[in-house]
## 1
Amino acid sequence: MIDTKRWNIENREVDNYSQALEEAASLLKGGETVAFPTETVYGLGADATNHQAVTKIFEAKGRPQDNPLIAHVATKEQLRQLVDHIPSYVERLMDVFSPGPITYILESNGTCADNVTAGLSTVGVRIPDHPVARDLLLACDVPVAAPSANLSGKPSPTTANHVWDDLNGKIAGVVDGGATGVGVESTVLDCTQDIPIILRPGGVTKDQLEEYVDTVMVDPALANQHAKPKAPGMKYRHYSPEVPLWLVDGSAETIQTLIDDERKKGNKIGLLASNKWLEHLSADEEISLGDTIYDVATHLYDGLRTFKEGNIDLIICEAFPEDGIGQAVMNRLKKASSDYLKL
Ligand code: TXA
Ligand code: MG
């Protein structure tokens, strides 16, 4: 057990802001793991140039060794120091979307340790758009490898409490900068070919990217369960809540009938849905994901974590239209669910 340190700097005006970040940065530079907020989800950081430090990330999360990590940096200059060559379309995308929720997969120049890239020739690089992440990255002045700061298989963390629930005692510290904003992870974009390929839908949408590059492809494995995904992490079941989740598409009437039938069998039902659904439905426990698809993305992982075994036997969750950020939301929900019912 490690005595996990926690710094509360949700309010950037607090007196201990710089001191907290300096302590966190010095742990990172000393080869320890520290969790910190980004605009998407909390990341579990370690010095990306230090093989042994990166090993601690895999151990704390119970993460499969073949799943590469994203290297986080504060500036474009720092990003350039990790890769071989940046295609001109990536320069254009970086001007618009970085800092922001996008990760570029580029040929690595070997600066990052080989367990960051899981032995691949490429490396994922990202500039997060969060003041605490930026200040921390500037303070440590090394690239920071950081997967989402959850136990492998669980929903990603969007608050420091989520990180604490999963990793207290296993990591050196958590910087509590409050709840994250976007809520789903960054878009992972393979930029090693002339035409970029979305390996994981995320905070920057396909439509947004297509405003700046002519063609954006999507990894066929995202639509076909039997194809092998190009991002190693996409093949694992993920985001699993404690109890089974059914993703459901239907009318208020058919969904309420489904809920009532399950309750008659003695099952306690948790409903995870937008306010539009909740107005018309009732279950044993209800969690609102808000009004818009952006609200849904923001609140999704907290919702998945709130239903507890013992209180609830089955989660019924609304299926959302798969456009815009809805693609990322539905990608995560399909992985979290055991069934997708179209009533
Ligand atoms: O928003 C995010 O991206 C968050 C925050 C903390 O930055 N990070 C995150 O990391 O979601 P992680 O490790 O949970 O997911 C990274 C994904 C995985 O699916 C991984 O397989 C893929 O990116 N990936 C990383 N490096 C890659 C590479 N060189 N080639 C292909 N896929 C890669
Ligand atoms: Mg993850």
## 2
Amino acid sequence: MPPRQALNSYTEWDPLNEVVVGTLAGGVFPTWQESMAHVVPETARSVFQERGGLPFPAEHLKAAEAELEALADTLTAEGVRVVRPEPMEHQRPFRTPAWESTGGLYAGMPRDLLMVIGDILVEAPMSWRCRYHEVDAFRSLIKSYFRRGARWLPAPRPQLADELYRTPGGDLANGDRWAVTEFEPVFDAADFLRFGTDVVAQRSHVTNQFGIDWVRRSIGEEFTVSVIETNDPHAMHIDATLAPLAPGKLLVHPERYVHSELFDGWDILPAPSPTLPDDWPMYFCSPWVSMNVLSLDPETVVVERQEKPLIEALTDWGFRCVPVDFRHVYSFGGSFHCVTLDTVREGGARKYLA
Ligand code: DAV
């Protein structure tokens, strides 16, 4: 029985009925800030410093948008209702009393910004200043979910003052591991994964303990939020480290994953290496977004068409793989899990973790 609620999504794998697919249209390079140095590829610094606020290369963006359209069509053909964000101007500079940004970024990665926990829609307080207004592209959708009965939980508006950031090479070298301090709650929603009544999070260069504590107390006692260790000095978003594909089946990054007793009894598959050529432009992230797959149900996964070793491993593991071309989207920082927000899945609040 499909759920009747406008929002109902407790896991990463229950049968998917409705999903938001992001758009990169109008996207611009981010305005550089030092805290990015810990997470983006080395080459990004000069690109963002020189081109922050300027449009992404037109041809590459066009190819990526075509891939996003093809993903939307594939999902529709699989019986999933697809919804899209509003077009939005990202090229306008903006400022607060404390800082300014030469532009925004995009509405391409709803996973970074929004999280559905049961019937609650959480808006994350993201720490990259250029992403301050990103939620506006999704506000029509969010208001519509609220009007249809969902709970709407925006995190406290962050100030993103200088005190939030550690200077790289300075404090970080003294044993403080992360680029963000505990000045105020910040997190990206993509540092959290849903396992029924359990939510698993990682600390990262965009998610502090204050942010995780805010999520824990705000979503209520029905849910348990656990923080796991990961072996990732560049940590930003947990979804190229762990990908739960079905109850008891966890795809992991072979080096970043550190076993947690939460997954005792789970079958754990290290993902094969990505197939992306070394010279492919990657402005934001590593080629390991290959494992950033989207589950359509506990037997079906959307996988990048050219990731043949991964497709083979998942097929051997009992999955039906739905191949979609997505390398041009990779360049902008994510793959199928990042560009989507699963708003309605079947199933309810069950316990899956030890
Ligand atoms: O492998 O660079 C990607 C996370 C995407 N949101 C990586 C992490």
